[in-house]
Batch of 2 targets.
Target 1
Amino acid sequence: MPRRTPRNTLDRLRTPGRFPGFLKTASVCALIAGLLSPITQVAAAAEAATAPNDYCGGQCSDILPPGENGNATLAQVLLNQAFGTQPDHAEDQLGPYANLAKGHPTLTNATINTFFNDASFGVPSDQVASTLKPAGRSDVTIVRDKKTGVPHITGTTRSGTEFGAGYAAAQDRLWLMDVFRHVGRGQLTAFAGGAASNQGLEQQFWRNAPYTEADLQAQIDNAVAANGARGQQALADADAYLAGINAYIDASDSGRYFPGEYVLTGHKDSITNAGTIDHFKITDLVALASVIGALFGSGGGGEVDNAVSLLAAQEKYGVAQGTQVWEAFRERNDPEAVLTVHDGESFPYAAKPADAQGEALPDDGSVTTQPLVYDATGTGGDQSASATAAAATASALGSARRGMSNALVVSGRSTASGHPVAVFGPQTGYFAPQLLMLQEIQGPGLSARGASFAGLSMYVELGRGQDYAWSATTSGQDIIDSYAVELCQDDYHYLYHGACTAMDVVEQKNAWKPTTADGTAAGSYTMRVYRTKYGPVQYRATVGGKKVAYTTLRSSFMHEADSIIGFQMLNDPDYVKSPQTFQSAVQHINYTFNWFYADSSHTAYYNSGDNPVRANGVDAEFPVWAQAAYEWKNWVPATNTAAYTPPSAHPNSVDQDYYISWNNKQAKDYATASWGDGSVHRGNLLEDRVKKLVAAGGVTRASLTKAMAEAALVDLRAEDVLPDLLKVVNSSPVTDSTAAAAVTKLQAWLTAGGKRTETTAGSKTYADADAIRILDAWWPLLVKAEFEPGLGADLYSAFTANLPVDEAPSAAHGPTGAHAGSSFQYGWWSYVDKDVRAVLGESVQGGLTQKYCGGGTLSGCRDVLIGTLKTAAGKTAAQVYPGDALCAAGNQWCADSIVQRTLGGIKHGNISWQNRPTFQQVVEFTSHR
């Protein structure tokens, strides 16, 4: 029986994909016949849409699989489940996206839109599929194009434009928006069912952002009050946007074309139409923003894990040497790390202090995780729920935030046209419907096309304006700190500036019962978070024998709504007119992102986020005492505001020769919270290719896209580590026949480019399949055999908690589990690279404190590598790829393949692996205003 691959975070969402046995074809057909009778949504006759000023000259393209349409009626859901039929525009972008994997070698500028959409403004008159005046309003029009069904919203008033944006969002993503407003409020199980996966998902996010309704409203009030006229405009925009969403809810309810998931989860009756779909309110937008911010824009955390591994190192080696060993593996400021700002400019942040102050390291073995779930009944407390909750907790508290995305931007000095070229986008996982949605929005003070997170599409968040484009990657600099609050009186009081203070208690009670979509038996529980002025309690421990609670304080806590101003500016053609005004706009975004910009003449980069100014001597890597001396500068607990580093201190640049980013280190001396910014990083896959293109000159949209697409298929371990491993293995003749055969296969794969790619498009079989299987099996074996003997089992285990050993495409990793596409972000490739190079006698900057492989000798290292290689070569495909709910054991291609995770009732087929952005733009502007 195939093993079910462990899943986490967003993958855990239980969806209407598992219907009871009675919903077989005959029953489905009968149901469909009855369900096709309600009135369908009516659109006005098609009419031409006039595009506003567009300076891209037909050279802006984008893509967002699987498709724009993320809503499906009950009839459409049942047809999909029974026969695989797809609603219009539900997956028409999936094929072109998938086809780039094999189509990129022959790509030209003329064929880019074979694999991407034309992202020009407007819709040619012969391509207009429908025109709608939502709710009969005369001040806004929603035009949808024939090819993709993307909404092009044009308003004559600001409020009408935003009303149209809300209406279009609900047309395309109403069910998804409803799911995630409940995730953000910690109410998913009560809304969608009590599956263990749903329990884990709501627990993960609510632990990080346990807000009351008053907290959510306060965020809105504070953001509006702090931003003057722009704050008032943002509030008006949000109100109009919500009015549009709610108008669609009313229309689809009365017309009976609302998403079918409402029936399957028991919220609506398919026969009588009884039941309600709750209107959206403004605090729902903050709940949605808290989920997105936690997933992709909240760098930091992990201080307690860091302390545990430091203590393990000091236990083995002594304090001085143990600290050196820890710092070597931490790679805070590795001189060999690939950089986004590579001109040598330094941006010091979160550096190791010369004399650390206020550290509150836990006593050995004293750390326990603060419970979240109480009073569980029924399926709220069963074994699978407990295991899922534990996994959710580990993901929520770890420093390896699984934000992703990449960017390749080349200055006009190195392009064929003399204009900058950019290929960029976010890796946000693969879902059905997708978390992001496409739109064009044109109205007073608004002019943009691109992607926005569903339910937050008042503005385009990533996309293009009239004569500029922008995108982002997750940066991960540390805006989260852990404080040790000393307990007093009992476990729920703590010392704040010498006064014994009660912790605040925030609770969310959830109960569920079986539905058609989720047959999980009835259950309930209460999620309870203890909040202090220093943030929510995450761990309990003792420090020097004193009982403490470790809290987590992030600068964006209670401030998820603030970033709306920056997105508003990005959509305003009267604000963004240059690299400098672009940088000014994204300075208003407090999420930890790297932002990239291109127009017809310039490129730019800026790293955003509210970086707190820490007290002198505080080391951001470890917990510190919750005392005034170690608080953030000018910190005000009531509002969680503080002094932040000025914009000039953030990595930033204008018109560098090129920029690359794949969640790598931003700049010299700028530390990030997650481990792994060393000599080998997936950013090197872009750096090496773009640097070569720039050196040759004449870069085009096609050549830059090909560089991205090639990097998306390469196995990082093969390209950047395997050559040195084979140097060691081949330092003497390989006489063992099994090892020799494996070496031959690995070398042939390396010569062919080290790619994980099909033999031919659609073959579902990898070229060099044996070599790929061998490396997948070999890597974890060689890492353990290389490092565990020297580090010892305890320290090796502690370090693997800080940084996973591997992140191959077939592994369950990232925010979406297996089949997630994004790979090779976190792993021990840099450690292996530095250690093996040292054993070979090669120059290593920022090396480890000792040689580990084989005790540090070339012959010993060779023995370790050959021994583990023989073991790996002997593993069958079924052992390496054990199978899961989708794939049979041994199916290598399927194990790697990308799945659109169902967040609703519509399913899609899996596609061949690519390691690339989910939403992606290819842009080259030809002129400027």
Target 2
Amino acid sequence: MSWVIGEVSMSLRRTDGKIDEDLIWSRSGVDVFEPSIPWRTFRWRNGQKHYSGTHWSSTMRDHVAYESRLELTRLLYADFDQDVTAVFAQPFLLSTTVDGRRRRHVPDYLVLREKDVPLVVDVKPRHLLTRPKVNFVLGWAREVVLSRGWDFEVWSEPPEAELANLRFLAGYRRDRLFDEDLLAEIRAADLDGATLGDALHAFPGHPDWRVRAAVLRLLWSQHLVTDLTTVLSQRHVLHGGLATVVGSGRGDLPRPVDESELDDGDDELVWRMQGSRSGGHVSEAAVRVGVGTRLKYDGEVVVVEEMFGSAAGNELLVRDGADRRFRLSLRGVLSSGRATVIATGPGPEADDDRETASVLFALLSEEELAEVRERAAHVNEVLTGFRSGSEELAEPGEPTPQYAATVPKLQRYEAKATELGVSVRTIKRWVRAYLLDREAGLVHGGPERGSGDMGRLGRADERWVEVALEIMAEHGKESKPTRAKVIRMIGPRLEARHGKGEVKLPTRATAYRWLEELERRLPTFRLSTKRNRDIAARPRGTYGKLRPTRPGEYLLMDTTRLDVFAMDPIMMKWVQAELTVAMDWYTRCITGLRVTPVSTQSIDVAAVLFQTYRPRPPGKDWPSSAVWPDHGIPRGVFVERKALEEDVAEESKGGATKGAAGPALVPETIVVDHGKPYISEHITSVCQRLGLSIQPARLRTGRDKGPIERFFKTLREGPLEVLPGYKGPDVFSRGERPEDEAFFFLHELEAIIREWVACVYHRRAHRGLLDPNVPGLRLSPSAMFEHGIARAGYIDVPRDPALGFEFLKTEWKQLHHYGVEIRKCRYNGPGLDGYRGESSEYTGAKAKGLWPIQVDPDNINYIYFRRPDTRRWQALEWEHAPALKFPISEGALQLARKAAGAKSPFPDDESAVADLLKRWHLGLGLTLPERRLALRQAREQSAFDLPETDWDDVRALPSVARLLASSGDEDDQDADDLQVGEAEPYEGLAPSDDDDDDELDGPDDDEDFYVDALEDA
């Protein structure tokens, strides 16, 4: 089909937020896309089915957005393609005139290739391609793109096995995580013709888990190539060259098909190649396939023109609606599930109003079953002369003379009617039903036995049931109604809709019984209103979920309010606490956790993510079985047994406990909700720098993070409910005054949870953990971690001691001659020498020649700057930091300035902070914000284990230490006067994040945060 297309223009959105509108395509080159960003951002709405997120692309070394998991598959294929140089999501708005009407379209992706022209990609499920509206939009967009000399592709579902292989190998796409020496050694080896299993065991000088990860990395980078059309196994043969993938991109479009085209007559039905699963005539259940047979293949109607044999088997020559001919394998058509035969005659269907024999017999009592068997025996005797229906199973005296095969059939009917005392017509009806449906036809009512019945509703009027469900659904977001109220509302609505007296109303007792049955379909009366809303929001179809294939593929992160009160060390009163947890989905291992007072900030989320890379040290009294080696690999697969024995011997002698409290992982994708701390620019930038993809869960869909929600319940029903201060999951479960029993401080509560996780949770078998090859084997998280390493290898966690700086918040600032100014605080240090007053080489909407500075909101005494020449971090000290002997947070400084401003028109930071600390210590007049900040300040554990910077090393020199010691006495005296060394803090009603409001939007306001996006059709 061709259209009359006018002048074509495109609109781009630059990285600085500016929009270039109506650029004429003929004057637009590929370079206009380099500085562009997606034309629209994806949005979220309650009840959506698709997943949107950001994928860290190894091609772009940056995040690329996707609006559905199908679009994510296209990104995986683009990353795997060695010819692809760049991928842009929703690159431009295409505008033109089609047949005199203005049309607009935003392609899903623009793929730039090294050896070919740019490729415009639209992603659509295969079954939607034949819909006229979708086909029309893709058709004119394809014609426009091809007319400009570019390529156009429609991407649909790829082959399952190939996609599973690419998804598995994509976990090894980050090259900086692998040992280049080991990769070079494997590349130098002659593995051409070797199997994958042989390659995994060909390097005994290295641990198996490290070799496995390296080999899989080389498969992704295509230094090693194997067949990816079947699921990877150790039998796959390796060879050289570039890998070949099938994918699902197509340059043409199928002909649009209306549903009416499939119904040319009343007797014409659409049949699956597998045939009907219902009862009926066997001869009519089959469908003829031959010349002239019409098929619906990949959503397009084709006609079989010829059938012929070949070396590969029988093949079909088919013709589509565009008069194009192509060949199909008959075996592939019958077994792939992609074909549907358009039948030309009536026959049994899967949706017939007939029950299967097993269902009918299950509805019968033993007496009724015996009656059906006896009736079938009589029919067999009439037809064959034997009650069993077979001569081999003849009973003594069979066949009797009146039922011998030589006796005419009508006489046999008359003899059986006389024997049973029924009419000949009844015997004929039994024989006919038996020949049609066997024993099922002899059941009273036959296969239509259940028709007209509504289950436990009996024969209730469908109109009454419809109105009852309608009224119950209307109360989904309102207060819970009573059954009597619903019954009173049904009568008037039926009268208004169908007329007075048209629908007979049941008695009150019957109406209550029917509502009790409808309560099973739509809970309204028994459960809480919140629970009813959750049930109503369940998907109507099969539940779908992300399925991890290896450790680290998905890292679940969430925060919950703990059901136990903690102690406020300032006022010695109770305080609310929140727990933030990171869980590896594949293994259910808890890789990080942090307890915070009152609310969680983005720096707390970053701290938990940091623990995934750098686990906390174990407790002093932990059993050795609960301690993980420093690199995070379980002891069961640790190869250096001698080193382990030495560590155990040293611990038994009283030495310090070595190892970690949990496994160390390199996550690939984090799954988070829409809370401010998780969608903040801070967390997004951390994931971008570390190469992590972000998959937000759907709004108000807790099952998207089901394992971590289940962990919270296990935690509440395990260690928390036995602790003093436990308050229960809701107000109805709360004791009289549980806050009076608050006993543990925040850091003590965190230590208890961490020890329980290591000693109990990681070692206990979980019902959700199993090996599909051994379904009955239940595994613990630690055992599942070993299983994952044996299956996918282990990617070493980066051992850079300065990794913690990557998790701090980035601020873009100018380097002045006096240092750096952030939040009206000045920082300086020798690390800035040589760069003061200079502009950086960074470009972009935020950079604009400024320098990136790493900031810890919980400690404003220092900020951190990385010198471009040495790539080493330098600590810059706050000008008032020498007056303090402990960290102070950004929020505390702002609060101190506000309080000091009420006393003096010209306060300085040093006196303002000192006054605030004095108020905290005395506990006088503490406001809720002050108490919340004091609680955060009182945590004994630092969020990040940051190494000493170059400046710290200089101050540690003996000469410098002597100079500092001479002035240290005065500082110590000042600190003693302040008496703040043991301060611990509180709760409050402040916001739960430290990011600016213009950087973030509320998680529940779809109109503000998420704008225009396509959703999956």
